[in-house]
Amino acid sequence: MADEPVKDRPAQWPSPWPYDFPVEGKVPSAPDKVARIAGAEAPKLTLTRRNLFSSAMLGWGAFATAGGVGTLGLVRFLFPNVNFEPPQVFRTAPVEKFARDTVDESWKESNAVWIVNTEGRIIAISTVCTHLGCTPNWLSAENKFKCPCHGSGYYMNGVNFEGPTPRPLERFHVTVDPTGFLWVDKTQKCQVEQSTCDAGAFYIQAKA
């Protein structure tokens, strides 16, 4: 059988498709294809070891920076430098300011303490109800503390006498500095029902 004449075949390269597989490491792009068809030299991919190392270092540097910023933010969140709690030890006023049989409410809102002069003693009483932690009100017309939550009632000295509260209001340590100012230390407290408030550290003898 005689060999058939070989028909003209289309050239295998350059291919009419612009993104065909590259040859000799040239960039597989449309401009490269056009350049080869036109007979011009196509741009070659240039990548050196130095460029690769620089790119890697830049990437790791960006990652480390982002991680460091996140860590600093977390530490700043866990350790705020602003303390919104009222001081536990604070100065009030000269002892002479607290008149006999009076309740001074000047530090009720800021420090949760009443300064009371009763029964010949100046004492610092907690404003926290011993029932469920509400804040009682001083009713001067009735001469008592009255809790608005569940009706617990206390005498001027903080001893309970009505309502569901189980025990008297707590008292805090008081002292007088050399200038005559009364100081309250809320880190030390006593309980009347345990007879611990009779200690001299929890009252100041009032002047007649």
- Figure out the total of helices: 3
Give the H and E element order: HHEEHEEEEEEEEE
CATH homologous superfamily placement of the largest domain: Rieske [2Fe-2S] iron-sulphur domain
| CATH domain class name of the largest domain | Mainly Beta
Q: Radius of gyration from the CA trace?
A: 43 Å
Number of domains: 2
The CATH topology of the largest domain corresponds to Rieske Iron-sulfur Protein
Structural class: alpha+beta
Main beta-sheet strand count, sense and barrel state: 7 strands, antiparallel
Mean pLDDT, to the nearest integer, reads: 82
CATH-level-2 architecture of the largest domain: 3-layer Sandwich
Shape type = elongated
The percent of residues in helical segments reads: 10-25%
Number of strands: 11
